[in-house]
Amino acid sequence: MEFYKYQGTGNDFVMIDNRDLQFPKDQKIIKKLCDRRFGVGADGLILLENDAQYDFKMVYYNSDGGESTMCGNGGRCLVAFAFFLDIFEEKCTFIAIDGEHEAEIKNGIVKLKMIDVENISLDGNDSVLNTGSPHYVKYVDNIDLFNVFAEGKQIRYSPTYQEKGINVNFVEKISDEEIFVRTYERGVEDETFSCGTGVTASALTFLEKNNLNTVKVETLGGKLKVYAEKKGESFLNIWLEGPAKQVFRGKIDLSI
Ligand SMILES: N[C@H](CCC[C@H](N)C(=O)O)C(=O)O
């Protein structure tokens, strides 16, 4: 089985061209492929498939092998992969578990339109919202010293969130136009170098607090930008922009 390895600001994925629908959608195989010692190693696995109404379809799995909700960095990497496969020229639309996405690619930078966000709920002083995946957003100081794994795991497995899980983002303001975000990711059950839907969720809370439309977001794995328009309680026309790169390609025997 041929595979490609992509990363978007350090959030990394095994990408498979599954337009022939030959890939076995088996949790054990996917978990093994994502294993960083016994497999290729990745935060997730993404299948590119055909769709009658769209340029392509996205199917996303976390590294625990379970199919999951939307992956923002994965969506950006999939756009770069589809461009590499000559599926489209500059702009595309694809279908994912959370609905339709527009995207464009230029010089390795992918702009991905995210779903609209109806509102931001509060849990104490923290925020809870869904940007295609569920997110918890907490502002902290000295984020470089923060124990993201322990604190993130505690919230993710707390009684409120245990059953369905939630991704937990910790945010520190860097300037009036930039934040730093670190994320404990559901389904990876660890901190990842970047989480696209988490960066988007964190950015929307910052835009709301500061009445802005654009914010730069720094992550452990690199820099992203988020644009959004506020309408009442909702956010529309949300775009996540940043690099997406092919790291290597290879063949793997699925009986690994
Ligand atoms: N782990 C997330 C999905 C991937 C999110 C992240 N990799 C992104 O870039 O959005 C979840 O199960 O909700």
TrEMBL record:
The active site is at residues 71, 195. It is an enzyme of class 5 (isomerase). It comes from Chryseobacterium oryzae. This is Diaminopimelate epimerase. Homodimer. The record marks 135, 185 as: Could be important to modulate the pK values of the two catalytic cysteine residues. It catalyses: (2S,6S)-2,6-diaminopimelate = meso-2,6-diaminopimelate. Substrate binds at residues 11, 62, 72-73, 167, 185-186, 196-197. Its EC number is 5.1.1.7. PROSITE patterns: DAP_EPIMERASE. It is found in: Cytoplasm. It comes from the Bacteria.
